[in-house]
Every structure is written in structure tokens, then in C-alpha cells.
Amino acid sequence: MTRRKARKSRRAAKVVSHFDPHFLKHGVFLATGALVVCLFMAAGIVERVVKETSSPYVAAVISAVLVDLANQDRTELALSGLKVNPVLVEAAQAKANDMAVKSYFAHTSPEGFDSWHWFKEAGYDYQYAGENLAVNFSDSGDVEKAWMHSPTHRDNIVNPKYTEIGIAVATGMYQGREAVFAVQMFGRPKMEAAAKPAALPPARPVAQAASSSTSVLGESTAVAEPVHVDDDGDASIIIEKKDIPFWGFLLAQPKTMLRDAYYLIGLLLLAGLFFDMEWEVHKHHMRHAMKAGVVLATMSILFIVADWIFFAEPILAAVGLR
């Protein structure tokens, strides 16, 4: 009886010692490495597509994602979400197109038209209004984070006085390179104003220091008189959050998606190693750890390269009325 139990114990130990998690098989390691490289290349392709495409639908998808991100930040602060106003979208598109065509990045155009000109040209009669700008970006998530890390831009996004929003993007040249221009306009219609509106404070410039990763401009100003110019903006397409396709988030946030995919692969590798170590009590397969280390190192290097080549830091500017 004792010998029989001993034989069973030896057979069980042999099975355990030869256990090999499928995730750590040599072929799976090769496939994982290929997936890591393919994801890197896909992120680069998406970045080029966003910069080179002139599709109004793609632009509308990116704008819808930016609206969703802004409302997420407001919800976290117990603020009501901003409603997309087609007139504000039209104003934002006209401003984005103007910057893209004329290759400038500022609240005031080369002709001297300030931010409020575009509101009035679109016919948006406001009580409060504000504007955030960004250029040279590849990931909507990075832009929203940069805006939220800048006090002036953050004030616009989470200002409880604003009830509506319009976002538009356009592709053009900036400082000799292809770039995506984003315009985020906020407003509160004048029809919502009280019977006796409060007087606006005098114009007051607000200086803001630039962070190490972004260049930031900020100011607060009074409304300019409307000046007529020809509107060269195309009709804007508006996409609601519920209508954003899954690929839209991949298109709008390639850096975020690449990072999340690499995190997931890394966690699976570490989990596989842990599972391997748990079962192989008598023999640790160091080759598994070495292969996993190679894959993890490759992901880290490729992400750094992608961040350097594909994903430029956004440049920002903001202006607001309160």
C-alpha cells in the first residue's frame, strides 16, 4: 500500500515538474513579440492617417472623443455635462480651418480677428464664452490631459458657467510640419441670461508659465466688435457619444491604446511567469523569465521610440470670458 502511494506521488511530481503554461511556450513568445511590433507599426500608421486625412467624418469622430473626455472631467467634479451646439461646432471649425490654411497658432489671426470674431460670425449670441486651442498633437487623451494640467485651460473645461461646447479639428502645416489643429469652444447662450446681466470686468491679461512638456498661452479679454470675413469652413458633421464607433477611440487615441495594449501584454506575461513559478516547485525555468524580459524590454523601447517619433507633445493656448 505504501509503495503504491509512493509511485502515485512520484508520477504526480513528474507531471507537476513538466507543467508548461501555454502562454510561455516558445511559439507563443514569438507570436507575442510579433504582436508587439505590429501594434507599434499600427500606432504609427494611425498617427499618419489622422494627420493626412481630409475626411470630415474622421475629424468628427476625433471631435466627439474630445467632447466625451471633457465631459468625463466635468462629471468627476460633479458638474453637468456640456451639450454640443452645432453653431459652436461651426465656429470652431471655421477657426480651425483658418489656422490650418494660414499656418498660424494664436487666438488672434494675422488679420487681427480675435477669438470672439468666430463666435459672432457663426451667429452664436453668448453670455459667457471661452476657447481652448491645441496643435501638433496625435492623441486626444494627451490633449485633454495637457488642457487639464494647465490652469487656464482647466478653468474653461470645468467652468460651471458654460453649458455648451463645440470642438473641431483641421489638418495643415505648422512650423514646417504637418499638424492637427484643435479648437475647443465653450459658451452659454445669451437667452439664458438674467433680466439684468452683471457687467463684465475690464480686460485683464493673465500670464501663465509654460510647463516642461507644453507651451501655453493664456489671457482673458473683452468681446471684440464683429468684423466680416468670408467663411471658408466646410459644413461640420456632428457625432454623438453613443454613435462613436469602437475604431473611433483607436483613431483618436493611438498612444493611449498602444500603452494600454502593452500594459495588458506585460501583465499577462508576468501572470504567466508567476503561474510557472507556482507549479514548477523543483525546477525554475529561467529561459521563460529571460524570454519575458526580452518582450517587456522590447515593448518599453518601442513605446519610447513611438513617443519620440509619432506622438509629439501638444502646444496649447486658452482664452476665456467669465
From TrEMBL:
<dbReference type="InterPro" id="IPR035940">
    <property type="entry name" value="CAP_sf"/>
</dbReference>
<feature type="domain" description="SCP">
    <location>
        <begin position="68"/>
        <end position="186"/>
    </location>
</feature>
<feature type="transmembrane region" description="Helical">
    <location>
        <begin position="289"/>
        <end position="311"/>
    </location>
</feature>
<keyword id="KW-0812">Transmembrane</keyword>
<protein>
    <recommendedName>
        <fullName>SCP domain-containing protein</fullName>
    </recommendedName>
</protein>
<dbReference type="InterPro" id="IPR014044">
    <property type="entry name" value="CAP_dom"/>
</dbReference>
<keyword id="KW-1133">Transmembrane helix</keyword>
<feature type="transmembrane region" description="Helical">
    <location>
        <begin position="27"/>
        <end position="46"/>
    </location>
</feature>
<dbReference type="Pfam" id="PF00188">
    <property type="entry name" value="CAP"/>
</dbReference>
<keyword id="KW-0472">Membrane</keyword>
<feature type="transmembrane region" description="Helical">
    <location>
        <begin position="261"/>
        <end position="277"/>
    </location>
</feature>
